[in-house]
């Protein structure tokens, strides 16, 4: 009986030593950890940046900044640590800070604002979708930017050489519309014009609806598409191939051109004005030659009168001065 009690106490003593060793190791590890705190500010405005992710590189320790741009990360191991700061709209910042065992550390970070490319949105017959979710190729033209930087007179100028697979054939006659072909000519006897959608409404802009207007203009056809002002268009999307027919029906087998116009936005009114002025000057000055004066031939005395070109040619007036 005495032997059994001795064995029991020896086992309990061994377990106590194990727990004591573990507790000592945990306490030692906690003493080697510290707290990292600081603020994240905008480098230009010095305003706090809320929602920025601050994390320790190589660990799962991190925290988002609050409305005041403040953050606190607890349990940071001692020694040199790399701190990464991420926020949409700002450039990534990575800094190194030395953490002393059991001592709090402070690290303030400033972020530089940068332009961020957002995921483009495509408008189709089924609604707006992210471009990554659309399985077909969609050509996009930023009409607002093109009009500001290039001489654009009509919609045909916006489409020319700005979307892959789109060919614009100009008739050469003043006031007539150009023929638009997407991926070439599909039929020898039927119309090859694409379907035009303006702000979700289909318009008739093809030449087949303007046959009667070709009389008196040498067979050339106009286009109602050129009635749209290029400065009022925000962007143009070009759908081609079988995907266009899938979205808009078999009538769209020649492709679809989706036009989105500019809309009013909340805020103060804005006006854009453009003025251009030019002049031409000759290196040599020419005398005024509005009219010529001379003497009338065949009369005595010869009176002075205006000599016209016909009088000089007929020999009835001899010019002797210019005015």
Q: In percent, how helical is the residue content? A: 10-25%
Number of strands: 20
Radius of gyration: 41 Å
Number of helices: 5
Overall pLDDT level: 75
| Main sheet properties | 5 strands, mixed
List the strand order in the largest sheet: 11-16-17-14-15
The low-pLDDT segments are: none
Distance between termini?
Answer: 148 Å
Strand content: 25-35%
Shape: elongated
Give helix and strand order, one letter per element, not per position. Answer: HEEEEEEEEEEEHHEEEEEHEEEHE
Structural class: alpha+beta
What does this structure look like?
By secondary structure, the protein is of the alpha+beta class. It is built from five helices and 20 strands. It has helices spanning 2-32, 143-149, 155-159, 242-248, 309-314; strands at 33-42, 53-56, 62-64, 70-77, 79-86, 93-99, 105-106, 109-111, 121-124, 127-130, 138-141, 166-169, 179-182, 195-198, 201-203, 233-239, 256-261, 292-296, 304-307, 317-322. The protein has a five-stranded mixed sheet with strand order 11-16-17-14-15. The protein starts with a helix and ends with a strand.
